[in-house]
Amino acid sequence: MPSFADPFSGNVNKKMTNEELAQALRLDIAGELEAISQYEAHILATDDPLAKAVLSEIRDEEKAHMGELITLMRHLDPKEKEHFESGAEEVEEMIEKLERAKKAPKKAK
Ligand SMILES: [Fe+2]
After folding, report:
1. Three-state SS at 5
2. What distance in Å separates the CA atoms of residue 12 and residue 23, rounded to the nearest whole number?
3. What is the reported pLDDT for 77?
4. Ligand 1 centroid vs 15 CA: distance in angstroms?
5. In this predicted structure, what is the pLDDT of residue 33?
6. Any residues with CB less than 8 A from the CB of 29 and at least 6 apart, and which?
7. What is the pTM of this model?
8. Residue 42: which of 56, 32, 28, 31 has the closest Cα?
């Protein structure tokens, strides 16, 4: 739900360090994820083709915003970048393992 009833709710009264900004970006990323989820729910809940098209385009813009924020966070916090890359490597290893298992000849029972 929007929280802009208080026009000062998002104000930060000081300049932030990069670590503090990275922490703030996590909240911004959560907001993008929430928006994506809501648009997706609305897309699934309508059969109107124009509504589906418009909402899908907006949803995809939110995904681009999420990518921008994650990239910015990785720039501001090098440790975060290491964790992202470690997680990505783990998933890539799982994908390779599954692909190898798919290609391996099936054992007779
Ligand atoms: Fe956005």
Report:
1. coil
2. 13
3. 87
4. 23
5. 97
6. 66, 69, 70, 73
7. 0.79
8. 56
